[in-house]
Amino acid sequence: MSLAHGVRTVGILGAGQMGTGIALVSALRAKVPVLLYDRSSEQVTKGLSLMDKLLAKDVAKGRITDEQAKDARDRVQVVGSEAGLKGFRDVDMVIEAVSENLALKQSIFSSLTAELGPDAILATNTSSISITKIAAAAIPQGSNAASEDAKRSAGRVVGLHFFNPVPVMKLVELISALQTTPEVLDRTRAFAVACGKEVTTSKDVPGFVSNALLMPFINEAIMCLEKGTATREDIDTTLKLGMNHPMGPLQLADFIGLDTCLAIQQTLYEGTRDSKYRPSVLLERMVDAQWYGRKNGKGFYEYN
Ligand code: CAA
Fold first, then answer.
1. Which of 51, 61, 166, 244 suits 76 as a labelling partner, its CA being 20 to 30 A distant?
2. Which phi-psi region, left, alpha or beta, contains residue 126 (left: φ > 0; alpha: ψ -120 to 50)?
3. Ligand 1 in contact with 54 (CB < 6 A)?
4. Is 5 a catalytic residue?
């Protein structure tokens, strides 16, 4: 195993679709022991059962052996709710994959910085929130941001943005906060490569490259539907067959989660103050109605 990343154990925070996928590629591809934590034990059970299903499918398709699947599964251990974030005390890297909520991420990074060793990397899988803001939350309370202690704490925070479904999508976007050190950036890149991913780098701007381009596209598709330009099927089929996209934009929005799409669009709009990023009213109303897409059965389409 290449130790260029120096990660002997990784902690994954959040066992939703992203966290579960990241745990899987870490255990199967990077072959690194994984500690998985989610404050909802129900979510952990769901995540582990998805992982079992995906490993069994890889075995059935002859991509990996039974033994490789078992080894990968054995590398994943769950951190119980009693231990909470303290369970990550000895890991060399934490990848946070909780929902797109700045206050939540700030509180997590503030706690992590107190628990983890000085060389541990604190990575966030955020899709759009400023890594620099999250890094500032890792500075110990009361420290001057220019002090050596503060520079060390914030310097180990980095953006590591995976794509859904993580086991299938080949890309990871790497984002440096203003504070991130070059060493942390290099080690994080090496870890993503060990997970089997190609890495692109983006500056810390709202949405980075991926969502600064994808979300206006999805938003325009929703506005087309809102204006009655075409049916949901015709909008999606136009992009699927006319442009060879694997999914139409409305299907993709349902796949990502409409609540996540709205949260990202709000971050883009607030972060740039540019009206081209204003979320469509229809998207806002659908989230008001708690229609979140595939994850809860109703979005632009219905799912069983
Ligand atoms: N988890 C894991 N694997 C999944 C999956 C999931 N949720 N959904 C599908 N797959 C796997 C399937 O099991 C299948 O694997 P095998 O080759 O081993 O059989 C493979 O993906 C292809 O699936 P299907 O044949 O069922 O269907 P498909 O050919 O239509 O592909 C897809 C499904 C890969 C999801 C494809 O439609 C696709 O690439 N869609 C676009 C996805 C995309 O753009 N993702 C990025 C979203 S943006 C994001 O994540 C970041 C952000 O910040 C918002």
1. 61
2. beta
3. yes
4. no
ipTM of the complex: 0.96
Global pTM value: 0.95
Strand partners, 157: 122
Domain of 120 in residue numbering reads as 10-202
Q: Based on the residue annotation, tell me whether 219 is a catalytic residue of this protein.
A: no
Judge if 14 and 114 occupy the same domain.
yes
- End position of a domain, from candidates 144, 168, 202: 202
Q: Which of 147, 170, 202 is the last residue of a domain?
A: 202
The total domain count for the chain is 2
In this predicted structure, what is the pLDDT of residue 141? 86
Catalytic position from the list 161, 202, 219, 280: 161
Residues 196 and 216 in one domain: no
163 lines ligand 1 (CB under 6 A): yes
Nearest CA to ligand 1 atom 4: 165
Nearest CA to ligand 1 atom 7: 165
Give tens-digit pLDDT for 93-118.
999 999 999 999 999 999 999 999 98
Q: 1 in a domain, yes or no?
A: no
